[in-house]
Amino acid sequence: MVRFKNRYVLCEVVSEDPRCRQCIEERAVGLAVRDAIGRVHGDYGLACCSISFTVKYLNAYTGTVLLRCRKDSYRLLCSALPFVRQLESRAQRYPCFLNTLHIGGTIRTCQKFLIQYNRRQLLMLLQNCTNEEERQCIQKSLLSCSITEEQSHSGDEEDDDGTETD
Amino acid sequence: MARAEPPAATFERRVLRSAAEHHYLRVRLELPDGGARPSVAQFKQLVVSALRELHGEVGAALPVDVLIYEEKTLSAILRVISSGLVKLWSALTLLGFYQNRRCAFRVLQTSPFLLALSGNSRELVLD
Amino acid sequence: MSVPPLRRLRQVPRHLLVCEKGHARHARSRHAAHVQEHAYNCRVSFLIPECGILPEVLKNTIADVGEYYLVRNLSVHELVAHEFIDAFVKKGSCYALTYNTKIDQDNTAALLPNGKLILSVDKDTYEELGLQGRPSQYSGKKVMRYIITIDLTDSGFHPDSKKHNRVLWALKEKKPLEFDFLLAWYNTGAEGSTLMSYFSKNQIQALKPKITFNTLRDLQCPVLQSNELQGKPDESCSTEELFEWLGAVLNQVSLDNKSSSFLSTYCCPQPNTIVEKAFLCTITGFIIPEKIIQLLEQLCCYFGEPKLAYWLTLTVHGFADSPVSWRESEHGFHKGGENLYNFVIFRNLDYWLQMAVGTNDDCPP
Prior knowledge:
The structure holds three protein chains of three kinds.
Chain A: E1 6-14, H1 26-50, E2 54-59, E3 64-70, H2 74-80, E4 86-89, E5 92-95, E6 97-104, H3 107-128, H4 132-152
Antiparallel strand pairs in A: 1-3, 1-6, 2-3, 4-5
Chain B: E1 12-17, E2 22-30, H1 40-60, E3 64-70, E4 75-81, H2 85-94, E5 97-98, E6 101-102, E7 104-111
Antiparallel strand pairs in B: 2-4, 2-7, 3-4, 5-6
Helix pairs in contact in B: 1-2
Chain C: H1 5-8, E1 16-23, H2 31-37, E2 41-49, H3 56-63, E3 68-75, H4 77-80, H5 82-87, E4 93-98, E5 108-111, E6 116-122, H6 123-129, E7 134-135, E8 145-151, H7 162-174, E9 178-186, H8 195-198, E10 203-207, E11 210-222, H9 239-250, E12 272-287, H10 289-301, E13 311-318, E14 339-346, E15 350-357
Antiparallel strand pairs in C: 1-15, 2-12, 2-13, 3-9, 3-10, 4-5, 4-9, 5-6, 6-8, 7-8, 11-12, 13-14, 14-15
């Protein structure tokens, strides 16, 4: 048996307009990415990427998106992601861009990276916060996430096939 | 002769394996009879649009040169960077329309050497 | 392991360009041998810069390129017949090549001057013929093409031998093969019957090579230095640049494009000089190597008297559909079937030789 090897691309939606958040849904993101691939790599590139392409996970609250495609064509997908300029949903259109965070071979590695990444983000927020209330709030969430991290730490070193960071 | 000639060359041999920087294609555009024939600039535009359709903006950015174009026979010699040969060839093959009229590109000859296009033994016609 | 599709998109078919330099008068120079070993040539062209009118000697050489013959519907067994072998193959250099057959789809035959008859046939024909051969080098796992080599001058190939009878039977009765043949015969001295009279029963046609002259005005020529094969920046051009430039000249491509031009960015390699006029002569037909050697010699003699030109070139194109390129190395078509070579002869009789082959070809000698 041969496994179909996939690549998972973890990215976040960055937008200046807070209303953009309501646009972040699977269909809209998928269409926007497909449109960008079609523009940059043409029919051929779109067809290559379309094999097993899906939006695997999406968090509208944090703007995190996990995309899946075949290992052969992940370069086409990644090179097209910077060309996503807007999300469109329910006849509304908001400018935004996708920030690629991580490319992994499994969803698991992407999740691990995301936890680490968010922890680092929290630390940065902690340094930048201005008043005491904010500080306490962040400290609380920091503590909560370190506990989950401890739990998931058991048996961490194996698996992880073909992780590629950039 | 006043100028001193350089000494006779010693024997040297260099083998270049698949090192050609460019590939060359001799193509012919087929259009239905009647109607406007593209000028050389329109022809190049057509080639670029074929590339854009199949390979997107990345394909359209491939360096393609129209070395010769003959408006009467609609034949041309194209030069393309070696890594883009497959892209160009596939894009030309799949092009179907020119200004909303059916058209087709015929690739007559292709070679990594421009010199090879000047003597095609398959076109040798004896009376 | 299969190649990922995206990398395959950037790959090009294999090709080879061999560049040599040497001196034409050197005792061990093999340039003439290279010409001799390339048996089937369909076009010869030479370019002489700074030359308006061709010297008489060269004109005579061109006129003497000699005629060749086209025989329609000739059975291959006639080339194996003993009368033919005795009258032509053993008495000189006999060249034969099938005309209008495509090496990648049809059966093809060729007779080399050393008396070897080479049949390149597809699988079905091979099995019907029942002659010993070997699978084609370029056919991959599933063999669809076979090469049969018959040595006509072999001592074991006398009229009554079993081998001869078997070949004759196979080609006459088992699977009669008929082709249109291009024929040429070169012999020194001894007069004999001619191909024309020998094949008078068949449809035979004597053909003269087509010769065209062309004077190119204000041509940009690259500067070359005979002992710098790779060229030096700002001093001389490399062989690859020259090869491309020559292709541009022979295809009548305009050389003075700007780098910002929309249509074409090709321009003459640097450094270059503008030559007021250059003489271009093209001979098209079935040209035998002996005549090309004569022409090459005359071109070397061109520099016997002081001339303005620093170098001249002689380009020879092979047949894309011949079963051999150099010597007996197998030749296939793949995407272009190119096999050609080019001489650059310098004023001091140094030469550059560039030999180019496509995908289904061995490395030139």
